[in-house]
Design goal:
Layout: H1 7-29, H2 33-42, H3 44-57, H4 60-68, H5 78-103, H6 108-132
Helix pairs in contact: 1-2, 1-3, 5-6
C-alpha cells in the first residue's frame, strides 16, 4: 500500500500533539515527584521525535548554518566598532575610578588626574567617530605597527 505524501507528517503531528496532551495530564495528575519526573522524561521522546524529523525533512539545520556562515553577514564598520569598544572600556574605567574614590583606596589628586585623562580620551574618541563611520577596515595609520 503506497503512502500518500504528507501522511508521515500527519502521523508525527498527531503523535506530537497526543504526547504533549498526555504529558500535561500526567504532570497534572501524578502526585509523587519521582513518578512525575519519570513520566515527564519518558514522554519527551515522542515530543522531540517529530521536531527532529521535521528539521531534517525541511533542511532547517542546513539553512541555519548557511545563514550563520554567510560572508555577507560578517561584521562591518570595523574601525567604528573598535572605537566604540574603546569608549566602553573607558566608561568602565570611569566607573572603577568612582568606586575607588568612594572606598578611599587612592588619593583624590590621583583620581582627579585619571578622571581628566579618561575624559580627554573619550572626547578624542568621539571626535574620531565621524571619520571612522562607514570604514570597513582599520585605517592605514592604525596598521603601521605603532
Amino acid at each position: 500500500m503506497a503512502s500518500r505524501p504528507g501522511f508521515d507528517l500527519v502521523v508525527l503531528g498527531f503523535l506530537f500533539v497526543a504526547a504533549v496532551v498526555i504529558d500535561g495530564v500526567v504532570l497534572f495528575i501524578v502526585e509523587p515527584a519521582g513518578t512525575r519526573l519519570f513520566f515527564g522524561l519518558l514522554l519527551l521522546l515522542p515530543i522531540m521525535w517529530p521536531v527532529v524529523w521535521m528539521t531534517r525533512q525541511f533542511g532547517l539545520i542546513g539553512k541555519v548554518t548557511e545563514i550563520v556562515t554567510d560572508p555577507s553577514r560578517r561584521r562591518q564598520f570595523l574601525k567604528l566598532r573598535s572605537i566604540t569598544v574603546q569608549i566602553l572600556e573607558d566608561i568602565k574605567r570611569l566607573n572603577w575610578l568612582a568606586v575607588d574614590a568612594k572606598r578611599g583606596v587612592r588619593k583624590d589628586e590621583d583620581i582627579a588626574a585619571d578622571l581628566e585623562a579618561v575624559k580627554r580620551r573619550l572626547h578624542e574618541l568621539v571626535d574620531q567617530m565621524p571619520a571612522a563611520a562607514g570604514l570597513g577596515e582599520p585605517a592605514p595609520e592604525d596598521s603601521s605597527g605603532e
